[in-house]
Inverse folding.
C-alpha cells in the first residue's frame, strides 16, 4: 500500500482550493484500492467525510508528523501556496512541510502549483533551496515555470500542466437548476443571469466597490439581466458581495447556501456570462463552457486569461468605469463566439492535466498493475 499525504489550503471553505483537492483525490482513487490518502486540513472531520479519505489537523505538528512517518509520498497540492503577498507565515508553513517531508524520507511533489510572487530576497532564497530538493516539480502555467527559473532552479525539470479543477465534472444540470430555484431564481423564465464573483481587496482604496456596483447596474439595465453574486470563499466573499450590493441601484441576488465545487459549476452552467475576480470562478466557467470576463488582482489572473487569449477587463486596485463598461459590452456582444472557443480550450486543458497525472503516477510507481 502507498500512503500519500496531501497538503494545501484545505478545510477553509474556499471552493477553488477544494476543487483542486477533489480533482486530485478523484484521480488517485481511479488507480484502485492500494492507496491510503491523508489530507492536512483546517477541518479534518469535514474533509474526511466529504472525500472519503483520512484527514488530520494541519496545525497539529504531532498529527502531521505521525501522518508523514506512516507515508511514502508527500504532495503539495495545487493553488498559490508559494507566495509572500498574502503573508510570510503561509509561505513558511508550506516550506516547512516540504522540508519535514524530505527529512523523513518521503518522495516530495510540487503538484500543479501557481508560484509567486515572492518579493522578499530571503524568501526567494529559502524557496529555491527547498524546491531544489524536491523529487518532482510541476506548475500550472508558463509564468510559474519562468518564475522558478528566475529563482535559480535551473537543473531540475519543471513540468507545466493546467489547474486540476479542469478535470472536474459538474453536478447534474438538474442540481444546478434546483439550487437556483431554492435561491429564488427560476433559470427558465427567459431573462439571462449574469454571475459576479468578487473577493475582498486589501488595498486602502475601496473605490472598486462603487465602480463594480455601477457596472452591475449597467449590465442589469442594458443587458436586461438578473445579477447573481456567487461567493467562492463563503465568509469573506459573501460579506464583500453584500457591500457591493448595498451600493447598487438595481436589484441583485446573492447565492446564500453552502455548495461544493461541482454544484457551483452546475449553477455557473446556467449563466449567460460570469464576471470573476476569483481565479476558480473563471476556471469553473471555462470548464462548463460559460463565457467569462476577468478582473485582475494578481498575476495568476492575467496568466489564466492569457491562456485563453484574453486580457482583464479591469484591475481591482483601480478599475476605470468607462473602460470596464466598454469591455463588458464587447464581451456581451461576442459571447456566443467566445463560448465555442472556451469549450475547446478547456477540453485541451483537461487533457493536459490527465496526461500530467499519468506521467506523475507512473513516476511515483502508483499506477495500477
Amino acid at each position: 500500500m502507498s500512503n500519500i499525504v496531501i497538503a494545501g489550503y484545505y478545510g477553509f471553505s474556499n471552493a477553488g482550493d477544494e476543487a483542486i483537492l477533489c480533482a486530485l483525490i478523484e484521480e488517485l482513487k481511479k488507480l484502485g484500492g492500494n492507496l491510503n490518502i491523508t489530507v492536512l486540513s483546517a477541518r479534518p472531520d469535514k474533509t474526511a467525510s466529504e472525500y472519503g479519505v483520512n484527514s488530520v489537523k494541519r496545525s497539529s505538528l504531532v498529527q502531521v508528523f505521525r501522518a508523514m512517518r506512516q507515508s511514502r509520498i508527500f504532495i503539495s497540492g495545487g493553488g498559490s501556496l508559494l507566495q509572500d503577498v498574502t503573508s510570510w507565515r503561509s509561505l513558511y508553513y508550506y516550506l516547512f512541510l516540504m522540508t519535514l517531508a524530505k527529512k523523513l524520507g518521503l518522495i516530495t511533489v510540487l503538484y500543479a502549483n501557481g508560484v509567486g510572487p515572492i518579493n522578499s530576497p530571503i524568501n526567494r532564497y529559502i524557496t529555491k533551496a527547498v524546491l531544489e530538493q524536491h523529487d518532482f516539480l510541476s506548475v500550472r502555467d508558463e509564468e510559474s515555470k519562468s518564475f522558478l527559473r528566475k529563482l535559480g532552479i535551473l537543473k531540475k525539470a519543471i513540468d507545466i500542466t493546467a489547474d486540476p479543477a479542469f478535470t472536474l465534472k459538474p453536478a447534474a444540470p438538474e442540481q444546478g437548476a434546483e439550487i437556483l430555484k431554492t435561491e429564488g431564481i427560476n433559470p427558465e423564465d427567459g431573462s439571462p443571469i449574469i454571475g459576479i464573483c468578487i473577493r475582498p481587496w486589501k488595498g486602502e482604496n475601496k473605490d472598486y466597490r462603487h465602480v463594480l456596483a455601477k457596472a452591475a447596474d449597467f449590465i442589469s439595465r442594458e443587458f436586461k439581466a438578473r445579477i447573481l453574486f456567487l461567493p467562492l470563499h463563503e465568509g469573506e466573499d459573501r460579506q464583500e458581495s453584500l457591500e457591493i450590493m448595498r451600493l447598487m441601484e438595481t436589484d441583485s441576488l446573492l447565492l446564500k447556501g453552502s455548495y461544493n465545487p461541482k454544484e457551483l459549476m452546475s449553477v455557473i452552467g446556467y449563466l449567460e456570462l460570469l464576471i470573476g475576480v476569483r481565479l476558480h470562478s473563471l476556471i469553473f466557467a471555462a470548464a462548463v463552457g460559460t463565457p467569462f470576463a476577468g478582473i485582475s488582482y494578481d498575476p495568476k489572473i492575467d496568466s489564466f486569461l492569457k491562456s485563453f487569449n484574453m486580457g482583464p477587463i479591469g484591475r481591482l486596485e483601480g478599475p476605470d468605469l468607462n473602460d470596464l463598461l466598454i469591455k463588458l459590452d464587447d464581451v456581451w456582444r461576442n459571447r456566443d463566439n467566445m463560448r465555442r472557443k472556451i469549450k475547446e480550450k478547456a477540453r485541451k486543458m483537461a487533457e493536459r492535466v490527465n496526461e500530467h497525472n499519468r506521467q506523475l503516477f507512473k513516476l511515483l510507481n502508483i499506477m495500477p498493475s
About this structure: The chain has 14 helices and 13 strands. The CA atoms of residues 161 and 352 lie 6 Å apart. Residues 2-160 form a domain with the Rossmann fold fold (CATH 3.40.50.2000). The chain has a mean pLDDT of 94.
